[in-house]
Amino acid sequence: MAKRVAVIGAGASGLTAIKCCLDEGLQPTCFERSDDIGGLWRFQEHDIGGQASIYKSLTINTSKEMMSYSDFPIPAEYPNYMHHSKVMEYFRMYAEHFDLLRHIRFKACVCSIKKRPDFPITGQWEVVSEIYGKQESAIFDAVLVCTGHHIDPYFPLDLFPGVEKFKGEIMHSREYKHPEKFRDQRILVIGLGNSGADISVDLSHVTKQIFLSTRTGTWVVNRVSDDGYPLDVVHFTRFKNLLRNMLPCALVNLWGEKKLNARFNHENYGIKPQHRFLSRYPIAADDLPNAIISGRVLMKPNVKEFTERGVIFEDGSREEDIDVVIFATGYNYSFAFVEEGVIKTRDNWIPLYKFVFPPQLEKPTLAIIGLLQPLGAIMPIAELQARWATRIFKGLLKLPSEDEMMADITEKVKYNEKR
C-alpha cells in the first residue's frame, strides 16, 4: 500500500511537492486553507484569514528561464520577467498538466500536526484539519510543510520611540495592494528590501512625496544585464559560481561593487550599504535610481523617533505631515500548527539539515520545503527539495546521523558568517 503524505499548502512549493509524491508512487493529500492554488502569488484585494498575497503591480525578479519547474517549461511567448498574473497562469497550467488538483483539499486549514504515540517505530503523524467548520483527523506516513516564510509580519514597533503617539496610519507592506488610495499623500516606507523598494516606486507616481528609510542600505541590481539578457541568465551559471567560490572574497566583493557603482554611485544616491557585496543578497530595483534622481523618492536614514505627525531621523533631519508609515520589515517564521519541539526556531532561524530536515527526529518523515531565500527563484529549488524528501520517505535514500547533520548545519552557519 502506498505511503500517505500530507502536503501543507498549494503554493509554488506545494504544487511541486504533490507532483514529486506522485512520481515516487506516494499518495499525497494537500491541505490548502484558501479556495485556490498559488499561495502568495495569487493576488487578493484583501488578505483573508491572515494569508499574505502580493501587490497588484508586482513583476517577478527572476527570469522565466531560471524559474521553471524542470519538466514543464514556461511558454516561450511569455516575457522573461513575468507579471504575477502570468505566474499564476503558469501554476494553473502545471497543475492541470499533471492532474494535481484532485489531490488538493481546498478551504482546509491545518489545526495541528502531532507525532503518533508509536512515532519512534512508525514515523507517523496525526494531522487535524478544519474544513467548513468541521474538524477531521487523519493519519499520514509523512508530512511536507510547504507554507513558505511569508507568514507572520515582522512589525518592530517597539524599536521606534514615540510610535504610540503617531496620529497617522501605520501598516505592514503585506497589506499594500495598489497606490490609488494613497494619492497625494506623504508616505514614509521603512525598510529597503525588494518589497520596500518596489512599493516606494509604485507609490511615487501618485503620492505627494515618498520617504524611504533604510538602516543598513543595500546593493541594487538591474533585471536587465549585459547585452540586454536577464541578470540571472548571465550570472547564475556553473562557471560563474565556480569563479565565485575559487576567487578570494575580497576580489569578488571589489568586482561586484565596482560593477554596481558603475551604473549609479550608491553613496550619491543615499543607499550605500554598510556591508560588502557578498555579505547579503542585493535587491532587484530597476526603477529605484530613476525615482531617486527625479525626487519622487527621498532616501532617509533610520528613524530615531516618531512625533504626533512626523518623524525624526538619526541624522537629525525631520519630516512633518506624514500621512502613512509602511513597515516593509519582512516576516517571522511560524509553524504554530506543528507539535512543539519538532521545528525549533531560534531568532527567526531554523536549524535544518540542507534547509529541509529537522535533524533531531527519530524518523525522517517530516520535511520543510521552500523555507529559504535563494539568490534566484524558489520553484526549481523547491522541486529538488521535494524530490529528495520523497525519496527519503520512500526509503530509497537515507539521512546521516543526527550528529553529522548538526555538524553540517554548524558548518553552514560559520560559512555564512565568514561571507
UniProtKB/TrEMBL annotation:
Pfam families: FMO-like
One of the record's GO cellular component terms: endoplasmic reticulum membrane
Function: Broad spectrum monooxygenase that catalyzes the oxygenation of a wide variety of nitrogen- and sulfur-containing compounds including xenobiotics. Catalyzes the S-oxygenation of hypotaurine to produce taurine, an organic osmolyte involved in cell volume regulation as well as a variety of cytoprotective and developmental processes.
Keyword Membrane: yes
Membrane topology (UniProt): Single-pass membrane protein
Annotated protein name in UniProt: Flavin-containing monooxygenase
Top-level taxon: Eukaryota
Catalytic activity: hypotaurine + NADH + O2 + H(+) = taurine + NAD(+) + H2O; N,N-dimethylaniline + NADPH + O2 + H(+) = N,N-dimethylaniline N-oxide + NADP(+) + H2O; hypotaurine + NADPH + O2 + H(+) = taurine + NADP(+) + H2O; trimethylamine + NADPH + O2 = trimethylamine N-oxide + NADP(+) + H2O
Family classification: Belongs to the flavin monoamine oxidase family. FIG1 subfamily. Belongs to the FMO family.
Cofactor(s) for this UniProt protein: FAD
Keywords: Endoplasmic reticulum, FAD, Flavoprotein, Glycoprotein, Membrane, Monooxygenase, NADP, Oxidoreductase, Transmembrane, Transmembrane helix
A molecular-function term among this protein's GO annotations: N,N-dimethylaniline monooxygenase activity
Compartment list: Endoplasmic reticulum membrane
EC number in record: 1.-.-.-
Lineage: Eukaryota, Metazoa, Chordata, Craniata, Vertebrata
Class in the EC hierarchy, top level: oxidoreductase
